[in-house]
Design goal:
Largest sheet: 3 strands, antiparallel
Radius of gyration: 37 Å
Structural class: alpha+beta
Number of strands: 17
Distance between the termini: 90 Å
Strand order of the largest sheet: 6-7-11
Strand content: 15-25%
Length: 310
């Protein structure tokens, strides 16, 4: 109410006789709405634009922060094309089974006058598991590219190791189910001998066994993810931070390679062959060291393949 009162008083001053307010031509005109209404609230910050995950595959290059967003928003794509946000790896077991030819064990009449038939049934279960995992290749945005490469390599290996357990579990389960179905006997009795009744009994048992196998697979996945393990493979970006003010980027020099998070010299196979621009030139056909030439300012093994530079 007080704001409205002061607004009316101020407007009264503006329209009082003999009173005027001057402003420069560059000033914005002061209107009633500009003088009386409270200032508009600041716009909310624009959230980061979501990825078009369909354009991002399992193998990609970018900063560590970019990789974390890909992990959380897109996730890994399994071999059937489905994405799993939040997951860095996914394994599908691809179980299958083949029923071997049935073996007739016995056929006779029982005391009730029914014809009883006994078949021996064997089924082979197989698994063709396919593991998929995110494969992040760090770009050069990190202040220490070698340290960041170690983080990327370690994360990738952790994903491979984790999914390998699922692959092993799928193969073991298929073998376990095959062992259950070695020479399993089924008997059916009826007054009118019907092959269909016995076949239905066998088929129902196989279908149930398939469902039991899938339940066992789900249980194996839950066990693999139980503490102290986890279904998530975290990615920590502390070693991939960009340079701060006054900090110079660290990267391996020519004739150095990144190994275990640090730069180590490149060692050539032959002591007499020096490293040349990060490469080992080797020996010529005459068993002489191939020359290291400076071509366009870049150390380069002689394109002649000899100890002479062009």
């Amino acid at each position: 109410m007080k704001e409205i009162f002061w607004c009316i008083v101020f407007l009264g001053v503006l329209i009082s006789p003999g009173v005027s307010i001057r402003h420069n031509a560059v000033d914005a005109p002061q209107t009633e709405s500009a003088l009386c209404l409270p200032p508009a609230p600041l716009p909310a910050p624009t959230p980061p634009r979501r990825f078009n995950c369909r354009q991002i595959g399992n193998k990609f290059t970018g900063s560590c922060d970019f990789a974390v967003r890909v992990l959380n928003e897109c996730g890994v794509t399994d071999d059937e094309g489905k994405k799993h946000p939040g997951y860095s790896g996914w394994t599908l077991p691809h179980f299958n089974d083949v029923q071997l030819p049935n073996k007739l064990i016995n056929e006779e009449k029982n005391a009730a006058g029914e014809t009883c038939k006994t078949l021996e049934v064997s089924v082979q279960f197989t698994a063709a598991p396919i593991a998929s995992g995110l494969d992040w290749q760090p770009d050069s945005s990190s202040c220490n590219t070698c340290s960041c490469k170690l983080i990327g390599d370690s994360w990738r290996q952790n994903i491979i190791d984790h999914e390998q357990r699922h692959v092993s579990d799928a193969t073991a389960l298929a073998q376990q189910w095959t062992n259950k179905w070695v020479a399993v006997q089924f008997t059916s009795c009826s007054r009118i001998l019907s092959q269909g009744l016995l076949s239905k009994k066998i088929n129902n048992a196989i279908v149930k066994s398939r469902n039991d196998l899938l339940d066992a697979w789900d249980q194996s996945v839950a066990t693999a993810h139980a503490p102290p393990n986890s279904k998530y493979i975290p990615l920590y970006c502390s070693g991939c931070a960009p340079c701060v003010s006054g900090q110079s980027p660290t990267s391996c020099k020519s004739c150095e390679k990144c190994e275990n998070g640090g730069c180590v010299p490149v060692t050539c196979s032959y002591p007499q062959v020096p490293c040349c621009g990060g490469n080992c030139c080797g020996l010529s056909k005459a068993n002489q060291p191939i020359a290291c030439c400076l071509i366009n300012g870049v150390p380069t093994c002689s394109p002649l393949g000899t100890s002479i530079c062009p």
